[in-house]
Structures are given as C-alpha cells and as structure tokens.
Amino acid sequence: MDTPPRRKSGLNLPAGMNETSLRLETSAASASSPSSSFRSISISSPRMISSLTSPSSSSKSSICSDRFIPCRSSSRLHLFGLMDKESPAKEGGNEAYSRILKSELFGPDFGSFSPAGQGSPTTPNRNLLRFKTENSAPSSPYSPSLLGQDIGFASEASTPPKLPRKVPKTPHKVLDAPSLQDDFYLNLVDWSSQNVLAVGLGTCVYLWTASNSRVTKLCDLGPNDSACAVQWTREGSYISIGTNLGQVQVWDGTQCKRIRTMGGHQTRTGVLAWNSRILSSGSRDRNILQHDLRVSSDYVNKLIGDKSEVCGLKWSHDDRELASGGNDNQLLVWNQYSQQPVLKLTEHKAAVKAIAWSPHQSNLLASGGGTADRCIRFWNTTNGHQLNNIDTGSQVCNLSWSKNVNELVSTHGYSQNQVMVWKYPSMVKVATLTGHSFRVLYLAMSPDGQTIVTGAGDETLRFWNVFPSVKSQTPVKDTGLMSLGRTYIR
After folding, report:
1. Which residue in 131, 173, 255, 449 has the fewest CB atoms around it within 10 Å?
2. Are 210 and 197 a contacting pair, CB within 8 Å?
3. Which strands sit side by side in the sheet containing 227-232, from one edge to the other?
4. For the segment 110-120, what is each residue's pLDDT rounded down to a tens digit?
C-alpha cells in the first residue's frame, strides 16, 4: 500500500532536523485558551541554544537551529561603551583625532552618536563594516567633508596646516655668463623695475632685456679696470657701476650713455645702494660714501664705522635707515641724518654680505653670515632686539624678501651651494633648489616678484620661478624643457 505523500512544510529547517522535533508546549491552566497554545516554542533536545554543536560532532542525533544574524542597521554601538571607552595608550590624546578615526572605521553617522547616558543616537549606522559607502568617501582625513558639518565636530577639529606650495626644482632658463667672478665681496647682478637685467662680466657690463632676450653691451671699463658692483635706480632708468679702481659711474640704461663719474674711494667699490635721491657706495677702504647727483661734489657725506671691507648695503623701503655689513662681522644701522651708526649688531661670527629689509613690516631687517656663521638673523631696528636666528647649514651669500607674499629667499655657498625659500615668521622651508656647482654669490628679483635670477662662479645665470603672483597667489608654471636650453649673455 502506497504511503500517502507528506505535505510539504512551510518551515525552512536545517539538515538533521524535522518537524517532529518541534512541539508546542501548553500549560494546563491555559489549555482552554486558543491564543495560549503558541506562547512558547521549544526544541526537543535538552541542550540550550548556547551549547549547540554541529551534528557531526555529537554522539547522538543532534538538532540545531539556524544562526542568529542581528540587524546591522538597528545596532546601537554606543550602548556597548564604544564611544567613551578610552584606550590606555591614547589617554590625553586629541578627541578630534579619535572621532575622525571612528568615523573612518564605522562611517560618518557613527561620529554623530551621543555619548552613553546622554541621550539616544540621532540616526542608526547604515555603513557598519561596509566596504564601500553609497557616497564616495573622502580619501584624506583632511578633506572638507570629513572636517565639515556633515560629521558634526568641525568646531572641535583644528584646521590642518597648509602644505607648502610646489616650487619647480629646475630653472626655466639658463644664461651663460663668461667671466662672472667667484668673489664673495662683489655684487654683479641686478634686475631693474623696467625688466632689464644688468650683469658685470670682467671689464664689461651687459644688459639683458627679459621681454625679448636682447643683449646690449652697456660699457667696457678698459684693460686696467673691472666691474665690481651694479645697481639700478628704483625707477629703472639709470644704473650705477662700482669699479675696481674705486670709481662710481652712473649710466643712462636706455641710451647707453654715461652721465657721471664720481671718486672718493681709495680702492674697489664692491657694493652700491640707491634710495630715492641718494646713492650709497661701500668699499674695501672701509668707508661708505653718500653721493647726490644734484650736487657737483663727488660725495656729500662719509660714514665711518666698519673696521673692514664693506660688502653689504641696503636702504630701507621708507629711506629712513641704511644697513651695512662688513668683513668685520658687524651689522650697522644708520639713519638718514647720522654720522655714527645708531645700532651695532655683533652677533654674527662671519662677514655680513646678505642684508634685506622686509617690505611687509617696518623696521624688520634680515641679515646672513658667512661660512663661520651660516645663520640668518632677524632684527627689530627700533630697539635692536634679535627676533629669530636660523642656522642654514651653509654660507649665506644673499637675502631677498618677496613683495607678493611674506617669504624670503636665501642663496648659499660653502658647502651646499643651494637656494632656499622660507616662510616668515615660521621659517619653514618652502623649497630647496640646487643646480649651481659654485657658491651662489649673486641674486636679483624680477619686477613682478615671481622670478629670481641667481649667479655663481660656474659662469651661469639661472632663472627660477619661486614666488606666486600678487593676484592669483599661485606659483608661475614651470616651463619644462626650457630648462634644458642655454643662451649666452654676450
């Protein structure tokens, strides 16, 4: 006799378990109540759920239930103390960092949970243990969406510091400059406000027009003399030349015509500095002469204070103070009326050639020392206090402030021959540029303040884009293959 077919159960039971293993338990007291018959469900095996084993490992027929999978979306992880439990290794740590880490691990909603005991969470976590969120997650912990209002703790997280901008590591142009002297005490390169570069090469001075790369020979001083310093006026139309014989010549740069020759120095004139009306010249004879083209005499004033050759000379932007540096390791500050220096700063341990006045802050002066010093020092010339002191690791040959941003550039000699760009006042290095094989003794800045030119005894002039423009505040783009090209300045 055929067995009648078993009616298919609506329950999905695991292997080794049948319907007969399930029974309904009713209490005698409530047997009459129809609703009480479904009050509880028990498993025929006396084992508890927590002690269930697999059927294969049991000596007798085992009965097991399906796995219990909790609903992730309704989890309240803060109830388990995950929000307030501190790791011993992180005691005293940054709570903002901890929240960022938790948000990265458990999703953005996790960061908005209220601490245990301070209310219920605002929304359940929908991204727990998910590999990818529906919205693209930020790749960096500093991204705006992670530190913004969507997480809810932006006010507690401090803004991360900006990364230094990218500065091209190679020069965009290189000029050959034959006979450019390798002499620390000379100043043979200057860039005018009319975009013309002046370079002293041996006995001659050449002008290179940046807009069209045209080279003009300004003058030849003859076989018995040579150029030791060049300096444009602030308007950029006239240029002064200091010579090895101690003369100071003034030329019209547009007409290549000599305007004036002035004497007074006993030996070479290695440094020049213009203010609005006065040309100052420093010499190996340890004197500083003040020249005025409006009077017929060679000079109108003589400043005596240096005990060795004067190799650094700069007027402040308001024409009120003149800073001079010498081979006697002194930095002197003179006012426009004084016959004696108003400040004598003697902290440097080597010759002071590098001098620069800040265009952003009055009475702020930077100076750099030679090989035995290697330091850039910052001074408040109002009271003579030293504000900061940075050891650069190399001889400081030149300093120049950017007029576009509060940064400065320094060039160096022994032993690394590098060019460095610094932020002020933090003195964080923005860039370190290398390429010269000799001391980087010469430095000048373009009129737009974005490009510098450096010169060295390797007889090259290298043009670097290091500063952003005033409007865009972004660096000039590197011109790539132009760095491979080289032209001659004469």
Report:
1. 131
2. yes
3. 227-232, 238-243, 248-252, 257-262
4. 544 444 444 44
Single pTM value for the model? 0.66
How far apart are alpha carbons 30 and 34 in whole angstroms?
Answer: 8
Asked if pLDDT for residue 399 goes beyond 80, the answer is yes
Tell me if 228 sits within 8 A of 243, measured CB to CB: yes
Contact partners, residue 438, CB within 8 Å, separation at least 6 = 182, 417, 456, 457, 458
Q: Which of 285, 166, 184, 175 is nearest to 228 (CA)?
A: 184
Which among 179, 141, 174, 172 has a CA at the least distance from the CA of 159?
141
Q: What is the DSSP string of 391-417?
A: E-SS-EEEEEE-SSSSEEEEEE-TTT-
The whole-number average pLDDT for the span 157-179 is 82
pLDDT in tens, 310-349: 999 999 999 999 999 999 999 999 998 888 999 999 999 9
Q: pLDDT for 82-120, tens place per residue? A: 444 454 444 445 677 777 887 777 766 554 444 444 444
Task: Please list, in sequence order, all residues whose beta carbon lies within 8 angstroms of the beta carbon of residue 308, skipping any fewer than 6 positions away.
Answer: 286, 326, 327, 328, 351
> DSSP class of residue 113?
P
User: Which value, to the nearest 10 degrees, does the dihedral of the CA atoms of residues 72, 74, 79, 82 take?
Assistant: 40
Predicted pLDDT at 106: 72
Coil vs helix vs strand at 333: strand
pLDDT tens, position by position, 186-199 = 999 999 999 999 99
The pLDDT value recorded for residue 472 is 55
In this prediction, residue 34 has a pLDDT band, given cuts at 50, 70 and 90, of very low
* Token pair in block for residue 174: 């290189």
Determine if the peptide bond prior to 425 is cis (ω within 30°).
Answer: yes
How far apart CA 378 and CA 393 sit, in angstroms, is 17
